[in-house]
Amino acid sequence: MPARIIDGKAIAAALRAGIALQAKALPQPPGLAAILIGDDPASAVYVAGKVKACAEVGFLSFVHRLPASTSEAELFDLIETLNQDSKVSGILLQLPLPPALDARQFICMIDSNKDVDGLSPVNYGLLAAGLPAAVPCTPLGCLHLLRTVTTDLQGKRALVLGRSTLVGKPMAELLVQQDCTVTVAHSKSRDLPALCREADILVAAVGRPGLVRGEWIKPGAIVIDVGITRGADNKLHGDVNFAEALAVAGAITPVPGGVGPMTIACLLFNTLVAACRQQGRVVPKGLLDHDYSLCADASGRNTRGRVAR
Ligand code: NAP
Prior knowledge:
This protein has 309 residues and is an alpha/beta fold. Helix content is 37%, strand content 14%.
């Protein structure tokens, strides 16, 4: 039997609908500020997509377009202004930055209450400590997709291909917290096919189109394909050979239409959570069926406990 295809578009649409309802109930609409520096066309497309998504759920969005020549001081000033702006619930620094700007130090400048990408060391540390945190949007979305297939994750063997701060490492952390037995593989790992064949859950976040072959996949495994690479055919390709995997896996996300839409929906979710907290409102329950997406306060302390159920 061919694998069940996990419909990320539909699952993300349901999440966005819930977010829109919750946003309406707030005294002030959530606001997302995006900082776009330089002329990278892909970044411009991503930011435009996020602005459109904000409008669809009733959020405000504020796009700050800066030239590639922007100085460190100018970027620091902008982030500080946005940190103080009560209309801004979340701040998104679109990566990559021009080479003269070190993304890491600017991410550290973002108030952790407004770090809706979950990339600041405060949120990263909270996640690693097993405390509520703003979780990076892509792994948060992957976990949600996975849990639409099964919530019975205890003791499952999970393989995360890729160890980036953006996807691989937080994904592994979330899976450990779901009681999976997790292996993280990367470009120096040996015998990827053998590692893959042991996995009940396979998350591929590598950026090498078609790397994972059907014969690498354990029959019945759940496959979450994070990879997005535009091919010479101008189409988007995942890290998994989809046609081959379909015949072996139990469930699989397509590319496009799998993880991508969930990443944006989770950005909206993190922004909603940040807005609720900043406006002293209870964080809505039931939008995601797990409860990691709470921000710490600016000092790094988690002051409000877990999401009410
Ligand atoms: P990244 O920072 O470049 O990390 C890639 C990881 O893959 C690294 O850990 C690297 O290992 C590993 N790797 C590279 N080649 C490998 C190979 N042949 N075998 C095993 N491991 C290998 O990329 P990323 O930001 O995590 O993104 C990964 C992919 O996901 C990209 O295609 C990206 O476009 C996509 N993505 C999609 C979404 C979405 O919303 N769908 C969001 C974010 C990213 P080393 O650490 O040893 O170098």
